[in-house]
């Protein structure tokens, strides 16, 4: 029979093994946290995808949860809890899938199905799917018309969808059943405030639109009275007629008064004078100038004297763009003809010429240096007509 001393020696020898060699299948100091994450009991975060090879224990648990042999009640409750867990982790897409699967379990229990619908509505709400959330809230109320969470969620969805009168109706419906609830009065007050703001904004927008329409009609009448023609390329007949009505289809239309990229547009001042955005083109140097508000009573020479006065533009290296050297033309694109403009002529008189058409709401004029080689060559290639 072995003595007690012998037993102690054997035990000491057995324990000494752990100080001299490691357990072959144990976790190392480098990967123990990673290995612990694979054990369902110690997981701090569920994996996005469950692979049976990397997470065999978790795959087994999932198989148990979704076991086809379970009753509809077990499936529905299990999937509801799974959805709630995803919801708490803000994984709303997966929560929606879990709640949907719970509803498909076909457990005929009104309370559980109402909760599944309401919870799915909440997940859809946080995903921004307001119409789906509202649909689920309505479905929950069909099962339990007095379900408070469904009433609140429905009102919130209507708020996000800017259906403020409908949100008020949801709140009123809830307050009839829950007059002491705190959330519903807050929602109703917010919905009523937003409703009044929306109505106010709609009135302002309508008044603004009416004012703008009145201004457009007044502007159009002023253009028509002056006999100014707006370019309508879609109405060209191509028959070579000088008739304004035949070629341009009648009087001007507001559709052709487009706003320039700078924001400039023809306008009528308080004294009843038209101011046009005018474009000056310098083909010799491929440059341009823009006059945002050229009064119809002003002459071209007034602007040219300012633009080419003491300081000439940097691209005029030959210093030849002096006011007295300049020639102006407008082009009749339909007939490919240039008409020369006298610099001391007011803008209105030019725009009233029978072959002058305002294109895109902005009259444009070509500026050349009289007698320059480029000017002579340019004019030779064009048909030129004088007043």
Describe the 3D structure.
With 387 residues, this protein is α/β, with parallel strands linked by helices. It has two domains: 66-197, Tetratricopeptide repeat domain (Serine Threonine Protein Phosphatase 5, Tetratricopeptide repeat, Alpha Horseshoe); 244-385, Ubiquitin-like (UB roll) (Roll). The protein has 14 helices and nine strands. The protein has helices spanning 4-20, 32-36, 56-65, 72-88, 92-104, 110-127, 130-143, 148-160, 164-177, 183-226, 244-248, 300-307, 347-351, 373-380; strands spanning 229-230, 267-268, 274-282, 287-295, 326-332, 337-341, 357-358, 364-369, 383-385. Strands 2, 3, 4, 5, 6, 8 and 9 form a seven-stranded mixed β-sheet that branches. Strands 1-7 form a two-stranded parallel sheet. Strand 5 and strand 6 form a beta hairpin. Helix 4 runs parallel beside helix 6 (110-127), helix 7 packs antiparallel against helix 8 (148-160) and helix 9 runs antiparallel to helix 10. The longest helix has 44 residues, at 183-226. The radius of gyration is 41 Å and the shape is elongated. Residues 235-251 have low confidence and may be disordered.
Furnish the topology, listing elements before pairings:
Elements: H1 4-20, H2 32-36, H3 56-65, H4 72-88, H5 92-104, H6 110-127, H7 130-143, H8 148-160, H9 164-177, H10 183-226, E1 229-230, H11 244-248, E2 267-268, E3 274-282, E4 287-295, H12 300-307, E5 326-332, E6 337-341, H13 347-351, E7 357-358, E8 364-369, H14 373-380, E9 383-385
Parallel strand pairs: 1-7, 3-8, 6-9
Antiparallel strand pairs: 2-3, 3-4, 5-6, 5-8
């Amino acid at each position: 029979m072995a003595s007690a001393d012998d037993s102690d020696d054997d035990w000491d020898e057995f324990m000494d093994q752990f100080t001299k060699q490691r357990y072959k299948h144990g976790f190392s100091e480098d990967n123990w946290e990673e290995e612990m994450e694979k054990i369902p009991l110690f997981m701090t975060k569920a994996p996005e995808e469950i692979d049976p090879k990397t997470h065999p224990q978790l795959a087994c648990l999932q198989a148990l949860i979704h076991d086809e042999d379970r009753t509809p009640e077990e499936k529905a409750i299990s999937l509801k809890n799974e959805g709630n867990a995803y919801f708490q982790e803000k994984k709303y897409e997966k929560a929606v899938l879990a709640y949907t699967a719970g509803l498909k379990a076909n457990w005929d229990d009104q309370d559980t199905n109402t909760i599944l619908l309401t919870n799915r509505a909440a997940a859809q709400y946080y995903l921004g799917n307001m119409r789906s959330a509202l649909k689920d809230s309505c479905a929950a109320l069909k099962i339990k018309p007095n379900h408070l969470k469904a009433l609140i969620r429905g009102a919130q969805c209507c708020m996000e969808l800017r259906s403020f009168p409908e949100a008020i109706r949801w709140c009123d419906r809830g307050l009839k059943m829950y007059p002491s609830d705190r959330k519903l009065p807050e929602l109703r007050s917010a919905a009523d405030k937003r409703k009044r703001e929306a109505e106010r904004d709609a009135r302002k927008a309508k008044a603004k639109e009416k004012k703008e329409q009145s201004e457009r009609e007044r502007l159009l009448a002023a253009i028509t009275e002056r006999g100014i023609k707006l370019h309508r390329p879609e109405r060209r007949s191509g028959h070579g007629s000088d008739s304004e009505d035949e070629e341009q289809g009648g009087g001007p239309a507001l559709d052709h008064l487009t706003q320039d990229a700078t924001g400039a547009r023809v306008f009528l001042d308080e004294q009843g004078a038209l101011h046009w955005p005018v474009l000056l083109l310098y083909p010799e140097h491929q440059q341009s100038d823009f006059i945002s508000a050229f009064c119809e009573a002003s002459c071209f020479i007034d602007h040219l004297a300012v633009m080419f006065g003491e300081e000439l533009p940097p691209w005029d290296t030959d210093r030849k763009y002096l006011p007295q050297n300049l020639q102006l033309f407008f082009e009749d694109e339909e007939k490919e003809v240039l008409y020369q403009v006298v610099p001391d002529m007011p803008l209105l008189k030019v725009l009233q010429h029978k072959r002058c058409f305002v294109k895109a709401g902005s009259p444009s004029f070509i500026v050349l240096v009289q007698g320059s080689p480029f000017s002579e060559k340019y004019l030779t290639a064009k048909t030129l007509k004088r007043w």
